[in-house]
What we know:
Elements: H1 16-29, E1 35-36, E2 43-50, E3 53-61, E4 66-75, H2 81-90, E5 108-113, H3 124-140
Antiparallel strand pairs: 1-2, 2-3, 3-4, 4-5
Helix pairs in contact: 1-3
Amino acid sequence: MATGEITVISRDTVSDKSIDICAELLDGVLLGSVLPVPGAGEYVIDGSHYRDDLKVTLWFGNTTRRMPILTAGVARGPTSGLALWREMHRSASTPLATQATLPPKEPWLANRPEPGLREHPESASWTGEWLHCLGWTWMEYGRDRLP
Length: 147
């Protein structure tokens, strides 16, 4: 959202094991928990969903004192992607290159940098891959995986 760049992310770039780990994390997050990101040190996530849309924020810190690093939105169905896109713009605290009225066609994964990213640029070394995993996990979440 900060650059307006659009990229297709192939499912074969994310392992089934990574999807399973991320799905367990989403189980807790969707119950209202703030949970540590496995293997990511002092990073935690929280989030929510509405129908086919997921919104997750990655934070640096612990459950009581933290700063936002990035927020991701995943729209997997055609019913409410526009609402999530608009919310991602409405709640932005940094300038975005995209327009609130022009969302991409679903399904999509968008990431929005937050102010804490400037203070923790090291997170950029792993968040791209983590976002791909999050996106594909949500696409498959609650659905049977084909053999």
